[in-house]
């Protein structure tokens, strides 16, 4: 009988891809099959996130539950960003943990499995050309890492300390991976990196100078590939050439994530984001004029140290001007080994909560107003998930989530859909004959 693996994934899309890589390695090299029930598992992996304090606290409470209720003899491994950051301390606090594997050391999963109390967390380890075994959780789209690590030094962010310096993956490997995905029947690829439009900054070996725009052009030459998505681009690197290619190339999906973080140029400077409010708005204006149908999503942090009422009002102002289609908003959370951890001009917890609420209610107003205009519109939807009550869900090119009545026959198919009902997170439609 095969051994069973339970894996819990927290955090971002890069972590999800790392989990797929670990599943692939453990299936092919160690004979594991995945299970949804941790009580059946011979190996429990938690792939952690450390971007904010909350998920770190959650790790230790979850570990306790896994330890108490796991099958006898089952191993527990801690992977991902918190593993990189806390390392051996995890085993000190939870001595029943068998190994700790950092976000930059995923390729060593089948090795650490056999070394009790192994701690592999070198953030300079270069996995950019490692030939991972293949496993994909969706048959309809494939995630592809295009770079590892991050070279930025945003003062709030722990990621450079957990994922190390940025190294781009050679374009030939990315293109081959995209071809394999398409040959398996999927029609969409999703390119991943901390800072995708900084692609080509540094390769592990000698490599032709290829930037992100050129990578997108080369990928779009793959015949059977219909859709290309990516996350996250950085507003600082959004040059005209990139925005124009985004608008012009029919295979590039028309949704852009533009992490604002703050609308105040002063706060942006303290965050070391490398752009001002004006630059951000200038890039949005360029994007909207080149590609009016594009949707724009963003990340915003409230109550960064020193954020005054006036600074916060600038974030609100940008939200009103841009009318983002989706926002991910967070209260600032001080992180170890970051510059901002030492900033003393912190904002009161109560003010932080008020600001987050204000931001989120404004966002809801904007979304409701935009959604009201969707009735009767027609979108081409790529179906990828079965929902309850005989609904099938998919996304429009510009990333609007839409469901229709239907069966699994629609999965992996494109259809034109007319919007008939509005919800805040998903629209409902009917397939046009
Ligand atoms: N506190 C709050 N939010 C943070 N993010 C990153 N670091 C922090 C932090 N210390 C947010 C940013 C980033 C998203 C992934 O998480 O908005 O874009
Ligand atoms: Fe992803 Fe950042 Fe969380 Fe690491 S810390 S899992 S890179 S969001």
Protein architecture, described:
The chain has 433 residues and is an alpha/beta fold. It folds into four domains: 3-120, Rossmann fold (3-Layer(aba) Sandwich); 136-253, Transcription Regulator spoIIAA (2-Layer Sandwich); 259-275 and 282-372, 2-Layer Sandwich (Transcription Regulator spoIIAA), CATH 3.30.750; 378-431, Nucleic acid-binding proteins (OB fold (Dihydrolipoamide Acetyltransferase, E2P)). It contains 13 helices and 19 strands. The chain has helices at residues 13-30, 53-69, 81-86, 89-93, 109-112, 159-163, 171-183, 212-219, 240-248, 265-270, 277-290, 309-322, 349-372, and strands at residues 3-9, 32-34, 43-48, 75-80, 99-102, 118-120, 141-145, 147-148, 167-168, 188-192, 227-231, 255-257, 295-302, 326-331, 378-387, 391-396, 401-405, 414-421, 427-431. The strands form five sheets. The chain has a six-stranded parallel β-sheet with strand order 2-1-3-4-5-6, with helices on both faces. Strands 15-16-17-19-18 form a five-stranded mixed barrel. A hairpin with a 4-residue loop joins strand 16 and strand 17 (401-405). Helix 8 runs parallel beside helix 9 (240-248), helix 9 (240-248) packs parallel to helix 11 (277-290) and helix 12 (309-322) packs parallel to helix 13 (349-372). The chain is globular, with a radius of gyration of 22 Å. The chain starts with a strand and ends with a strand. Bound molecules: 5'-deoxyadenosine and iron/sulfur cluster. Iron/sulfur cluster (SF4) is lined by residues 11-12, 14-15, 49-51, 80-81, 103, 159, 162-163.
